[in-house]
Write a structure and sequence with these properties.
Chain lengths: 343, 507, 328, 333
């Protein structure tokens, strides 16, 4: 309890400090955010970060959920423009699919910030580096494998080829792990749909075919947990297994890290920080300030008990330890982006 | 307009309109038609008669292009024609008026008249004005009083049947086939129908008239062809026939009395008591009683509410007011399960829609209502079930290759026997039969008639809805007449005459 | 494919039940061909682990498909099973967390799932909304409702071994879900094949009016089929929650289509009155073997959408061809 | 006599006022129109940004996709069949469109290629359903999966961007007539009028109603039931293609995840619009009203900042209520 208080205090101090700098400028009154998938925990936390920051700066944040529908996304952005918000933030369902929208926003003089994925013709984007996230988790996994798994790395990737971001994570993970274990291989590359049950299903088949898998990588927590559950359902012992998850958006990974002996690494992507940063970027764009094309929001692999530095849990509520998160350094540039995938 | 057309084309009103020779058709396990000949003369009415399953419907479906033939030739105007589908048959000038209403109920009457070909104006748009005007003119010509703009589904069945018949006039037909056209018509409409038929023959059109009603044949037909068991039996001018010879040709033996009555007048306790039943749709304060062993006949013109009454008293349709008691115990309205439990069941007039489960077998169809009796703790004892079904198949002489035959492959009369058996297997106190012999020929009719008679004799109470006078007068102990949802008169068997029944029905 | 014999028409006894119905021979052939082809290319197909993985996947689908078969036979359909599956898991997990009792959790899950089935049944039979549309609407409401209930996955707090066992446990060599599915299958098979209830379902599906006139309570029978399907979703939902060690609100997407595809593939008619549980079992196996084979063979997983689509159309067409041949 | 021709009753009876009222009420359009007005009125009061010309124009543009595809789906429904493949088809047709445009820089060739694919898919659906007699729900569910899988396989699960960047192509989905009415709304409206005319005043339209209302009767009247149904599937394929082209223009690319769940939206709107699943009943104007109701509802709930979960719950409830009402009405009146 005392710890929670301390965290909250620290957070407000941090917020206040940042708010101080921001308040010197003009602030937009209302920001419209078209999120691609609001029911997902990741985006709920992004929104939470936005609202926290918005409250600090006295900005109203309105959210519309495209619910993974590209057509609806364009419609909602249109609605916001008709409604007359001051800045628009969009998380594209698909990065190609919002190109005409950006053109129309420009024609309407509507300041626009993208979250997540870069789009041709955009002003700025706030995003984590997916490749880097995977890469650093991969390096950590390599080190762990050297120490605990006898130096072999047979990876089952519970991936999601549907999105460039998740493809980058998987690539980064493999590249990272190879820096430590040169002969690390991806034994199975799966499409787990990002869903826990689908991930469970496809992993079961893959685990049955390849008994030598010793590392499960999931592009999000649902995927890594689905893979782990498939492992458990096959009646296998978790000795000699390493599970690496990505995201760290909810309670699921904390639960797993506490209770599952193999769930040792989580590549945290701090969604709250993404939302926080996006609002700051929106204010800057609103004021016509110079902004970099890619504003990077930090990520970091968390090993073992590391998560306690960033989050505290009380019952079923998770609160942000802003001190910890703000202490994580973000790179200026990503090692690899979606643009690199196309070549 | 149309009349001239036909006359021009028809030329002399004599000679063959269509010649069919050696027609053969097989269905799985059944030879429906074998070596059947039929020649229709221009401007004449040719009656086609035959028992249940004799092959009449198969033959007219071949003429309509609904079925292909397996053997034989069809010549029209000296040309052999294929008649692969209804379109080809229509193009050859063959128009079939089926017993089942063949109208689109969502369309207006006028549009249905021109269903085969919507007249179009310039630019290919439908000429609705012409459709309206011509159908109105057509109705006026034949004296048929119905609004061409009415939605067809809103009309009573008899008027729909008349629309069907009128439709035959609107087309450039050379051959008109009518399948049991009077089965749902009122006497006035039958007269109208005969007028239409005479008009058709005056135009040189050949009419094939399929029916079971002997009186009608003697009234309208020039020639009669009889089929039996899929074979051609006889073709004779009507003048060479008497009632008896015709029946003999149809069933291969003589019947002295079509509706033999074996019963005395012994009546038991009250089996069914209906008091003040009214429904939203039709019925208005209907009350009557039926005793065990008694047959109560209900007569009424189309739309009088007989079918509605039948469905209400077995618990199929909801009622607004009134009570129904079976053997002294109250029936819960709108609940057929308690109805069946109390021992009342309905033999429906709509076999396809409400009686049969077409995709299921004879056995599954027959044992449905009595399944509970063959089961212990919810499990069906199939040996007992099968034995019972076989028993009824034998007793009712149901013609089926096996108990596993799908019921849709049986003829109408055999289907009706299966449905009757469905109730008798269960054991009833009261059976309500609605047009029990509709679409069934003389032989099967008299079988079903005899069955009902015997059942009443065994103590069953029978409520019979019928529009056929001989049936009504032959079987009923008492006759109730309905008009507009009310009972207008009740006659004892001895007091009932055709005249006073009709008078009460019109009232 | 042609047969002149009359015995090819279906027998009431064997018609909806016994093993050698001809439509099922096609499916058995497809299944055998698939198994042989896959195992030739990837011998691990027959490994114990893989067979158990396939069976466990089949179990979830089969449990719900047993109910869906009954529904389709009586002429109805339920598209809300996928959304309900997710919701059930969340509720079951939540109740276990609150009470620490597996029994109460399972009961809550069953109560909820049964209520969803009841709701679908009432909408279809009392309000007379076509169940295809009505259950799509229920699906939407459940998808929305589950996020109103919980914003995130409900984690397993107590780690009850009995709860874990529900999905991942074994009795002897057999996984518990497979045993549950086998029990459900046998009960449903017997119910459809040997009881009056089963016979009534076929009758209601073949002609609701005729069934009603024969003294059956058609609406109530349909209602029961809806509730049974709902309850089976409850069972499957708890197994899935156990397998995932959490109640996942995002689970079950597309599950309804897998289930319906399997039932249709098994020869059950969408228009009611026709279908068998053996067929459904074969349908489930075929679909899941295809799914598994595509992964085992390392084919592009996008084929997991394409191949079942083709197989279902093909199987339905073969069934039509066969029935036409029988009718000739 | 007035020439007001309703889809199902081209010649309304010249009846007294009560019967007229009854006939009016039996048409699904009137209650639907009232519902639409209630929805609009409600949100106009509840949100101050709802009833603006710009917003209304936007919603009309947004509803154009569902309306265009909905015309085809409604026609297939009226013919007594079902088409749920439109969700994947709108994504699939964008591929030939964009690929050909990128290669040839010709909007015309791109659209031709897209229409060709739509035609083929419609023909396959129609052939399998009408001529081979496979249940159309199964067929189109199958093609829904096959097409989506095919799109993923072809694109490798990425979007194909529009590299030709033709202004004309951009304008299709994003341009506005007089700077106000989005072109998609205009296209959908013209198509709606054209097909409503066909369904009421051309023999083909009447054949579709007859075939759906009673196929046996239609066959006896000499119609080729199979050919009519086949044609309906082709119409549906082509109209879904038009919707797909408009969507591709709005997205500036062929997006592999486009149209996921679109079939549910369209079917829901069509059914809400009073088009019966059993065939032969319903009108295209009813369908259009169904689409508009759902579009305004989605827009309005969004304006009230109601979360997706509430939107789902509300929409689901409305569908059940609307269809139940329709059924109730059909039985009572």
């Amino acid at each position: 309890m005392r710890k929670l208080l301390k965290t909250t205090l620290a957070a407000s101090v941090a917020l206040g400090a940042l708010a101080g700098t921001a308040l010197a400028q003009n602030t937009p009154k209302k920001i419209g955010y078209v999120v691609n998938y609001a029911t997902h925990e990741w985006y709920q936390n992004v929104i939470k970060g936005m609202r926290d920051r918005g409250q600090q700066l006295g900005i109203e944040i309105e959210v519309k959920d495209a619910n993974l529908d590209v057509a609806k996304q364009v419609s909602f952005a249109e609605d916001f423009m008709a409604q007359g918000v001051d800045v628009l933030i969009i998380t594209p369902v698909n990065e190609e699919g919002v190109a005409p929208l950006i053109r129309r926003a420009k024609a309407d003089n509507m300041p626009l910030v993208l979250e997540g994925n870069p789009v041709k013709g955009m002003t700025t984007m706030v995003a984590i580096c997916d490749y880097d996230t995977g890469y650093h988790a991969g390096v950590a996994a390599g080190k762990y494998a050297k120490e605990h798994l006898g130096g072999t790395a047979k990876v089952m990737n519970v991936g999601l080829p549907l999105l460039s971001a998740t493809v980058l994570r998987s690539q980064g993970f493999m590249d990272g792990i190879k820096t430590e274990i040169a002969d690390a291989t991806m034994v199975h590359d799966l499409d787990g749909g990002g869903n826990p049950d689908r991930a469970l299903e496809v992993s079961s088949a893959a685990l049955a075919q390849n008994a030598d898998i010793n590392i499960i990588y999931g592009i999000n927590d649902n995927s890594s947990l689905g893979g782990l559950q498939a492992w458990k359902a096959a009646g296998k012992s978790q000795d000699g297994l390493l599970v690496v998850g990505t995201g760290g958006e909810g309670l699921a990974f904390i639960n797993a890290m506490q209770n599952e002996p193999s769930y040792k690494i989580e590549a945290a992507m701090f969604p709250e920080k993404v939302g926080f940063t996006a609002v700051d970027a929106a204010v800057k764009v609103f004021n016509g300030e110079e902004v970099p094309e890619h504003i990077v929001s930090p990520t970091a692999p968390m090993l073992g008990e590391d998560w306690k530095k960033f989050y505290s849990v009380e019952g079923t509520t998770r609160s942000v330890n802003w001190d910890g998160i703000n202490g994580v350094q973000a790179p200026d540039k990503c090692m690899k982006t979606a643009a690199d995938l196309k070549q | 307009m149309h009349a001239e057309l036909v006359q021009e084309r028809g030329g002399a009103h004599t000679g063959a309109a269509i010649e069919m020779h050696g027609i053969g058709k097989r269905f799985p396990g059944v030879i429906a038609l074998e070596e059947v000949d039929l020649v229709l003369a221009r401007g004449k009415v040719h009656a086609l008669m035959g028992e249940n399953g004799a092959g009449k419907s198969t033959l007219i479906k071949i003429m309509a292009g609904v079925y292909g033939r397996d053997a034989g030739s069809i010549n029209i105007g000296g040309r052999e024609v294929a008649l692969r589908n209804p379109r080809e048959a229509l193009a050859e000038g063959i128009k079939v008026v089926f017993q089942e209403i063949a109208l689109i109920s969502e369309f207006t009457v006028a549009e249905n008249i021109f269903l085969e070909r919507h007249p179009v104006g310039r630019a290919g748009s439908i000429d609705w004005k012409k459709i309206r005007a011509e159908s109105a003119a057509l109705f006026e010509r034949i004296g048929f009083d119905v609004d061409p703009a009415a939605r067809t589904g809103d009309l009573p069945v008899s008027q729909q049947q008349m629309v069907e018949i009128a439709r035959a006039l609107a087309h450039e037909a050379r051959i008109v086939v009518m399948d049991e056209p009077t089965s749902s018509l009122t006497p006035n409409e039958v007269a109208l129908l005969f007028k239409v038929i005479r008009r058709l023959t005056d135009l040189g059109i050949a009419v094939l008239y399929v029916t079971h009603k002997l009186d009608e044949v003697f009234e309208i037909a020039d020639t009669v062809t009889v089929l039996r068991d899929g074979r051609h039996i006889s073709t004779r001018p009507i003048g060479e026939h008497t009632h008896d010879t015709l029946i003999q040709d149809m069933i291969g033996r003589r019947i002295d009395n079509l509706f033999p009555r074996s019963r005395g007048h012994a009546k038991g306790d009250i089996a069914l008591s209906v008091k003040g039943v009214s429904t939203d749709a039709k019925l208005d304060d209907v009350s009557f009683e039926v005793r065990a062993g008694e047959v109560l006949g209900f007569f009424g013109l189309m739309g009088a509410g007989r079918t509605e009454l039948a469905k209400a008293i077995v618990g199929f349709d909801p009622i607004r007011a009134g009570t129904i008691e079976v053997a002294g115990r109250p029936l819960k309205p709108h609940d057929t399960r308690t109805g069946a439990g109390l021992g009342i069941g309905l033999l429906t007039e709509d076999r396809k829609g409400e009686g049969l489960m077409l995709e299921l077998s004879v056995q599954q169809n027959m044992s449905l209502a009595a399944l509970g009796a063959f089961s212990r703790a919810g499990f069906v004892d199939e040996t007992r079930e099968k034995a019972a079904v076989q028993g009824f198949v034998d007793r009712f002489r149901v013609r089926t290759p096996s108990l596993n035959q799908l019921i849709k492959n049986l003829s109408g009369g055999n289907q009706q026997k299966v449905l009757l058996a469905r109730w008798l297997m269960r054991g009833l106190k009261v059976i309500v039969v609605d047009e029990p012999t509709r679409g069934i020929d003389v032989g099967a009719k008299s079988e079903i008639f005899a069955l009902l008679d015997r059942l009443a004799n065994e103590g069953l109470a029978v409520v019979m809805m019928t529009s056929e006078m001989p049936e009504l007068l032959g079987l009923s102990d008492r006759i109730a007449v309905m008009a507009e949802g009310r009972i207008t008169a009740v006659f004892d068997r001895d007091a009932a005459t055709q005249e006073n029944i009709l008078n009460a029905a019109i009232a | 494919m042609t047969s002149e014999s009359l015995s090819s028409t279906r027998k009431p006894g064997t018609a909806f039940g016994l093993f050698a119905d001809r439509s099922q021979i096609v499916l058995i052939g497809i299944l055998a061909a698939l198994c042989i082809a896959i195992s030739l290319a990837a011998p691990q197909f027959y490994s114990e682990a893989n067979v158990i993985a396939i069976l466990r996947q089949c179990a979830l689908v089969l449990i719900v498909a047993a109910g869906m078969t009954m529904l389709l036979i009586c002429g109805e359909v339920d598209l809300s099973v996928g959304a309900s599956l997710a919701f059930v898991g969340c509720i079951g997990m939540d109740v276990i967390n609150r009470t620490g009792s597996l029994t109460l959790g399972v009961l809550a899950a069953l109560a909820f799932a049964g209520t969803v089935g009841l709701f679908n049944g009432i909408v279809a039979t009392r309000l007379r909304v076509n169940s295809l549309i009505g259950t799509i609407a229920t699906m939407m409401m459940l998808q929305g409702g589950v996020f109103l209930y919980t914003r995130e996955a409900v984690q397993n707090h107590h780690h009850l071994p009995s709860f874990t066992g529900l999905g991942a446990g074994y009795i002897g060599p057999l996984p518990i879900p497979v045993i549950i599915a086998a029990i459900v299958f046998v009960v449903a098979f017997v119910a459809l094949r040997y009881t009056t209830f089963g016979r009534y379902l076929y009758a209601v599906g073949a002609s609701e009016n005729a069934a009603r006139l024969s003294g059956l309570r058609a609406e109530r029978l349909k209602l029961i089929a809806f509730v049974v399907t709902g309850l089976l979703v409850g069972v499957a939902g708890m197994i899935l929650a156990s397998l995932m060690n959490a109640g996942q609100p995002t689970a079950g997407r597309g599950f309804e289509l897998t289930v319906i595809a399997a039932v249709i593939l098994g020869g059950t008619s969408l228009s009611g009155g026709r279908g068998t549980l053996i067929g459904t079992l074969l349908g489930v196996l075929v679909l899941k073997v295809i799914d598994n084979g595509i992964i085992i063979l390392r084919w592009n997983q996008d084929l997991q959408m394409v191949v079942p689509g083709i197989v279902i159309i093909l199987a339905t067409w073969l069934d039509i061809v066969r029935r036409r041949a029988d009718a000739r | 006599m007035p020439q007001s021709l309703d889809a199902a009753h081209p010649v309304p009876p010249p009846a007294p006022a009560a019967a007229m009222l009854k006939a009016l009420f039996r048409r699904s359009e009137i209650p639907l129109l009232i519902s639409l007005l209630v929805v609009i009125a409600f949100f106009s009061i509840a949100s101050d940004t709802f009833l603006t010309t710009r917003n209304i124009a936007n919603v009309l543009g947004q509803s154009a996709l569902a309306m265009t595809a909905g015309i085809g789906v409604a026609i297939v429904f009226i013919s007594g069949e079902v088409d749920v493949s439109v969700g994947s088809l709108v994504a699939a047709v964008a591929i030939p469109l964009i690929v050909v445009m990128n290669a040839t820089e010709s909007l015309f060739l791109g659209i031709a290629a897209a229409l060709a694919l739509g035609l083929v898919v419609g023909a396959v659906n129609g052939y399998l359903s009408a001529y081979l007699g496979i249940n159309s729900l199964i067929v189109t569910l199958g093609t829904l999966f096959i097409l989506r899988g095919g799109v993923y396989l072809y694109t490798g699960q990425t979007a194909i961007p529009d590299e030709a960047m033709l202004e004309s192509f951009f304008q299709i989905g994003n341009g506005r007539l007089l700077g106000l009415l989005p072109y998609p709304a205009l296209i959908a409206f013209v198509l709606l009028l054209a097909f409503a005319y066909v369904m009421r005043h051309r023999p083909f339209g009447r054949q579709v109603y007859a075939v759906g209302g009673n196929p046996e009767v239609a066959r006896l009247a000499g119609y080729s039931v199979k050919r009519v149904k086949f044609a309906c599937f082709i119409i549906s394929g082509l109209l879904a293609t038009v919707a797909g082209i408009m969507l591709a223009s709005r997205l500036g690319s062929a997006v592999h995840v486009a149209g996921l769940g679109f079939e549910f939206q369209v079917v829901a709107a069509v059914v809400l619009g009073g088009v019966s699943l059993s065939g032969g009943i319903g009108s295209l104007f009813g369908m259009a009203l169904g689409v508009l109701i759902l579009s305004f509802l989605s827009n309005g709930l969004g304006m009230l900042a109601l979360a997706t979960e509430w939107q789902l719950v509300v929409t689901g409830g409305i569908i059940i209520a609307a269809v139940a009402f329709d059924e109730f009405k059909r039985r009572r009146i």
